[in-house]
Amino acid sequence: MKEEKAVTLQVNGKKIQVYCALQAAPLVIYHAVMGEGKALWQACKKVECPAFSLAVINGVSWDDDMTPWAIPPIAKGDTPCSGGADAWLAQLTGELLPQIIAALPAQPTYCVLSGYSLAGLFAVYAGYKTDCFSRIVSASVSLWYPDFVTFVQQHRISEQVKAIYFSLGDQESHTKNPYLAPVEENTRFLAQYFSEQGLQTTFQLNRGNHYRNSTGRMAAGIQWALQQSL
Question: Is 42 helix (H, G, I), strand (E, B) or coil?
Answer without folding.
Answer: helix
